[in-house]
Amino acid sequence: MTRTLSLSLLSFILAFAFTATTADAQTKRAGDTFYFRAGVGIADYAGEYSPVNEFSDIFDSDKFDESFPYSLSGEFGYKFNPNFGIGLGLQYGDYQFAGGPPRGAGAPSAGITTTYLTGRLGLGAQSWIISPYADFGVHASFGGESTAFGPSFAGGFDAVVSRHASLFIEARSHLVLDGEAIDGVDQGEYSMDALTVMPTLGFQYTFEPATTAPVIFSIDGPAELDTGESGTFSATVNEDEVTSPVSYQWNFGDGSTGSGLLTTHGFSQSGQYEVTFTASNSAGEVSETLTVEVTDPPVPAQIATINANPSPATAGQEVTFTSNVRGDTPITYNWDFGDGNTGSGDTATHTFEEPGSYTVTLDASNDVGDDSRSLTLQVDPDLPPICETVSELNPAFFGVNSSTLTDEARSALQENAEILAECSNLTVRVEGFAAAGERNPDELSQDRAQAVADFYEENDVPSDRIEAQGRGAIEDDTTSKKAGTEQQRRVDSIPQR
């Protein structure tokens, strides 16, 4: 018996040493599934009546003269993973020389039925096209002199042909611990007998197909983003090998998700986000993460408002300028007051010495941008107190039917002209009148008003501050300031603000 075991082991060691196996990332064999195997082989018995004693005798065709020593086998089992499973097998073999005396070439054959329970351990079954394996188990064999028991072992090679099926070649040996159990003879020549089938050719079918789980090689994306900025995220996986359908999902850590190997996303709030990519199919699920730091983008300087107080201002009066500027700090403020002077700071003060209209400009800038805004400030002359309190001016009186200014009238109007010239905040409404009975009262009253207006212009009162109007004859002397027709022959100067 020991020669048969040695020959079997030697055969498979040599075969394993010279067999090339191809490996790639794709899963070649299924796991977590039931399977069925069936095979046919050549049966060989090693016991007291077996004449085979040399290695070459295994291939001696003379032993096939009486009958062909065939073997049929079937096995049903469960594969916990591509490399390991357990199976329950049934094997029938026509074993020559197992039928008892006479010893030698004339010994009869025996049909032996064997049931066995085995565990199978493969090497590289997940990725190799041709995978070696070894079986270890126990058996019970029927058909000899008595029921035989003992250990069972096998070795072989499995070659993938599809996601469900593979072909195998193996050598299996069932050791018989009781030397009399098969042939009824124990002469002490061999300590154990052996029921061997070598080789067995067959096929295996798994009820579930082989599936390849996804593998993530890398994920890529921006390490930093500004809020509102869109970034591109990509993943590299074993696309050519992974079993479809496969799901690719992104979780951006802000409540948003995406799908596919390539996607884009932007974050609305600043912070640190863990972006997770998950690939999954029926064979498994894998995930990888990357960290994205999201910050608010730099904000250029933007002027919202600028103001001047007071506005308008008076010459010699201090004016305060304020601004509202948005943007990243630090911000530089440069004021141009339009009179050759400048200032700085978000708030600035300035005094205009001369009256006039000034364009005041603020330039604001920071590291990422600048902005400019202007306002117009009217600066009035510095006026004496009377300019705010005066409510009436001197009237001018004329001779009968005359529009010529008398010396008395010029003297009264001179006082008015000085006030009007000094008080630029005032305008004057000039109203001319005629007394009842004077010729052409409408024309005369207009001439008198125009004479007063001309006098004011001659005395440095701008014409745009003077409005002259003839009111015609005064019919009711209650409108006059003094009794008598002389007071009706007059021009009133009424100050306006």
Could you explain how this protein is built, in words?
The protein has 497 residues and is mainly β. The chain has 4 domains: 25-206, Porin, CATH 2.40.160.20; 216-295, Immunoglobulin-like (Sandwich), CATH 2.60.40.10; 302-380, Immunoglobulins (Immunoglobulin-like), CATH 2.60.40; 385-496, 60s Ribosomal Protein L30, Chain: A. It has 4 helices and 28 strands. The chain has helices at 2-18, 386-389, 407-422, 441-458, and strands at residues 33-46, 70-81, 84-95, 110-122, 130-142, 148-160, 165-176, 193-206, 216-220, 224-226, 230-237, 247-251, 257-259, 262-266, 271-281, 284-295, 302-309, 313-314, 318-326, 332-336, 342-344, 347-351, 356-366, 369-380, 396-397, 427-434, 466-473, 490-496. The strands form 6 sheets. The protein has an 8-stranded antiparallel beta barrel with strand order 1-2-3-4-5-6-7-8. Strands 10-16-15-12-13 form a 5-stranded mixed beta sheet, with no helix packed on it. Strands 18-24-23-20-21 form a 5-stranded mixed beta sheet, with no helix packed on it. Residues 1-10, 12-23 and 479-483 have low confidence and may be disordered.
What's a concise summary of this model?
Helices cover 11% and strands 47% of the residues. With 497 residues, the chain is mainly beta.
Q: Helices and strands in order, then pairings?
A:
Elements (H helix, E strand, L loop, with lengths): L1 H17 L14 E14 L23 E12 L2 E12 L14 E13 L7 E13 L5 E13 L4 E12 L16 E14 L9 E5 L3 E3 L3 E8 L9 E5 L5 E3 L2 E5 L4 E11 L2 E12 L6 E8 L3 E2 L3 E9 L5 E5 L5 E3 L2 E5 L4 E11 L2 E12 L5 H4 L6 E2 L9 H16 L4 E8 L6 H18 L7 E8 L16 E7 L1
Parallel strand pairs: 10-16, 18-24, 26-27
Antiparallel strand pairs: 1-2, 1-8, 2-3, 3-4, 4-5, 5-6, 6-7, 7-8, 9-11, 11-14, 12-13, 12-15, 15-16, 17-19, 19-22, 20-21, 20-23, 23-24, 25-28, 26-28
